[in-house]
Amino acid sequence: MKMERKGFTLIELLAVIVILAIIALIAVPVIMNIIANARKSAAADSAYSIINAGELYYANELLVHPAESFETTVFSWETLDPIEKDGNTLEIKGTKPDGGKITITEDGHVLITEALIIKGFSCNYKTGSDTEIECDEMS
């Protein structure tokens, strides 16, 4: 009469645990890198949103005051209060910056004049570009 064995041996269980550990060692850094890149991309998208808000502010000022010339306007984030200039608010969709400055020139160009601080990233124009934004993690 043969005895049937049910279950797994200790060696089989250890082999499965070792395989799962190897998979975890490979997967965790890859997943962490994907998360870091997503956060960086979200900060850059917020910076683009701020620039778009500045362009909309300029267009609105031209519509509201067509006879007046537009003067260079600076919006600065040093507090978490809404940003106002002469009673008008810069309407930003998305994450508001914790610091930085943008300047809207007389001809409607929106420039980042002091790096925008967004969720621990410093966002500014890429070197040699006046349209592409690059965000670097602050230390």
Total DSSP helices:
1
Poorly predicted ranges (pLDDT <50, ≥5 residues)? none
**Number of E-type strands:** 7
How does the helix and strand content classify structurally?
alpha+beta
Identify the overall geometry: rod-shaped
Specify Rg, calculated over alpha carbons.
26 Å
SSE order:
HEEEEEEE
Q: First CA to last CA: what distance?
A: 71 Å
The biggest sheet amounts to:
5 strands, antiparallel
Mean pLDDT, nearest integer?
87
Quote the beta fraction.
15-25%
Description:
The chain is of the alpha+beta class and about 140 residues long. About 40% of the residues lie in helices and about 25% in strands. The chain contains one helix and seven strands, in the order H-E-E-E-E-E-E-E. Strands 1-4-5-6-7 form a five-stranded antiparallel β-sheet, with helices on one face. It is rod-shaped, with a radius of gyration of 26 Å. The mean pLDDT is about 85.
Defining key terms:
alpha+beta; five-stranded antiparallel β-sheet; 1 helix; rod-shaped
What is the compact description of this entry?
The protein has 139 residues and is an alpha+beta fold. It is 40% helix and 24% strand.
